[in-house]
Amino acid sequence: MVFSFIVIPLLVAAFLPLIGKLSKKLIPDVLTNAALAYLVINAVMLVKPLLARGTILRNINWFGEQVNLTVALDSFSLFMLFTISLVSLCITIFSVDYLEHYGHKAIFYALLLVMIAGMNGLVLIPDLFSIYLFLEVAAVASYALVAFGLGYDELEASFKYLMLSVVASAFALLSITIIFGMTGSLSFQAVAQGLQDLQARYVVGVCVAFFIMGFGLKAALVPFHAWLPDAHPSAPAPISAMLSGLLIKVSGVYALFRIVYSVVGLTPVLTQVLLALGTISMVVAALLALGQKDLKRMLAYSSISQVGYIVVGLALGTPLGLLGGLFHLFNHAVAKGLLFLNSGSVQHITGTRNLEELGGLDKKVPLTAGTNLVGALSIAGVPPLAGFWSKLIIIMALIQAKEFAYALVAILASILTLWYYLLIQRKAFFGPLNEKFKQVKEAPFWMSAACVILALIVILVGVFFTPFVKTWISPAADVLARGIQHVLTWGI
Amino acid sequence: MVIQIILLCGLVIFSGLAILLRDLIKAALSLAVASLFLGLIFFRLGAPYAGVFEISVVAGLITVLFALTIALTKKEDEVQENRLVKVIFPLFFILFLVIDGLVMKSLLTKVPALPSAPEGGSFGLVLWKQRTFDLVAQVGVIFAGVLAVLALFRKTGKDEEKDE
To answer: A446-455: string of b/e by CB count within 10 Å (b at 16+)?
Structure first.
């Protein structure tokens, strides 16, 4: 069951190009959505056994021969797997209609599934070098997906993304190499034990700095964010949603904090560095978002800003901070996925993403306007939507930790967020209808259905946030809070 | 000692060829051979882990991606090479030697390391028994690369119009 998160996407991706020769649309659509629906159900089914056992370790034999195929599933991994599968499923539902004008659905889905397999592998593997390899699996697929439209802008954005991503991987790999040289091992457990025995504070400090540069680039934290506002808007809408909703969180935030909490340990200095980086990202990106005219570019800057909140919550290291950070990670994945898909719908029905040209669309496309409002208000932190609770928890955690200045900045950045989201809503959906768009109709069925599902998740998680937090977020936060001790007791 | 020198010479020669050869496929294959030499050197120095990573990732995986991409590009897409390459490469080589001689040696002795037993095991044993998951990930990377090539070199509507 645990291996299926890696094996099923890879297997389906392997067959899709062949199946695509027989059926260009129906079978690739059904197969991809069925595979992801299975992964969502699988994640839900694993909650009970995981809560009962703490950590599930799986090692499979290769035709009876003992090989090292070990995965470690704890509540943090499961929470990430659930988020990845759920948001990906909605994105592939949206793609059923959206990809009609791109064509070559089978290859698109195959690349998307390889990217998902890469992210799932990264989340499940308790080994530093394998983290790097799965990071590359997801990254290689994402370069091609960003350039999938094959236009000049797409290719340029993909190339820029590739170049900066390679630099990020190089920093992460350099750090892994130094750690391997010192401890002679790569598994989380052995490295954590080795670093504790060595007490090499300064060298470990250098390694952590490299990790922050590498994974900070992947997470697009300011000042490592330059690639994101080009790459995310240029990609097809479902890929923008994947990148902003999931990839920057898995290959940036998850990888960084998994290593910080499970391998090197969180020190007060590291907390302050990450708090500063998170807060700068929050404010700078929110200010940059305000000046954008391109809808998707504004959303891309918003992603950088919201990743800042997640980093601040997780960097605090207090139970409340971890809870808020992880909850905001989920809320942002869902709401930003929704907003990028909505931007795809807007572009599909009007042919433009320029906010200056849009206007009054709520009269013609009420479903898109309504779901967009739900996503925007959630990220801006308006009650009772999901994003409100996570931001509230992060700000409460900052106050509890006596980080009053950071708490104040987080509140002010939240107001900025509300400002630019209301700008989107006002310029694109409210006001007088632009003459050009008198004939526009609501987006096709599957595109609207995906947005409605995501909007419902945002509302339901906001209203029933207590059971959701108890089932998914609290156990994941507990794993992080126990940190290195937790890894050392895995006994792999 | 003689084998070690042969391996080192092979590494330098094929690394140089990888940069200087004008045929891209030959350059990519030279890089793979250079990586193979480096992997063998790692093995002889008692670091089978590093050897396995080098041979499987660099010599194997990356070469497949290079070869695939080069095979799919057309002749007329050939990019004019900048003449600075011929100056920059030797400059970097000298700079690398200086840094290696002056900095790395003293720096490496200051990095603490746990005393560990020498690593053992053949290439197959390390790759298959200890780093099995890396194989899965490498299959994933190759697969992603192949799909990327299929996606980026596909015929679009415009190409089909041109063909007609």
So the answer is: bbbbbbbbbb
Size of interface A-B (CB pairs under 8 A): 116
- Write out the two tokens for A428: 């694109």
Cβ of A127 within 8 Å of Cβ of B133? The answer is yes
Which residue is closest to B110 within chain A, CA to CA?
A203
Please list every residue in chain A whose beta carbon sits closer than 8 Å to the beta carbon of residue B147: 13, 17, 107, 110-111, 114, 141, 144
* pLDDT over 60 (residue B164): no
Which residue bears the tokens 């209301």?
A: A422
Range of the domain at A104: 4-488
Q: What are the chain A neighbours of B114 within 8 Å (beta carbons)?
A: 182-184, 194, 197-198
Q: pLDDT tens digits, residue range A12-43?
A: 999 998 888 888 778 899 999 999 999 999 99
pLDDT band at A362 (very low <50, low <70, confident <90, very high): confident
Q: Which amino acid is at A5?
A: F
Q: Does B154 touch chain A (CB under 8 A)?
A: yes
Q: Where are the domains of chain B?
A: 1-73+119-154
Query: Which neighbouring-strand residues pair with A294?
Result: A354
Task: Name residues 37-66 of chain B within 8 A of A (Cβ).
Answer: 49, 53, 57
Strands A65-73 and A56-62: antiparallel
The domain tally of chain A equals: 1
Using the predicted structure, report yes or no on whether residue A327 has a pLDDT greater than 90: yes
pLDDT at A492: 45
A234 near A146, Cβ under 8 Å? yes
pLDDT reported for residue A476: 92
Q: Smallest Cβ distance to B111: which of A68, A117, A203?
A: A203
At A124-167, the pLDDT tens digits run 988 898 899 899 999 999 999 998 888 888 888 888 888 888 88
Q: Looking at CA atoms only, how far is residue B161 from chain A in angstroms?
A: 15
pLDDT recorded at residue B120: 60
Interface-testing mutation among B65, B136, B142, B159, with chain A (most A C-beta atoms within 10 A): B136
| CA–CA separation, A266 and A277 (whole Å) | 15
Q: How far is CA A234 from CA A88, A141, A155, B80, B164, in A?
A: 19, 15, 9, 28, 29
Q: Name the more confident of A488 and A427.
A: A427
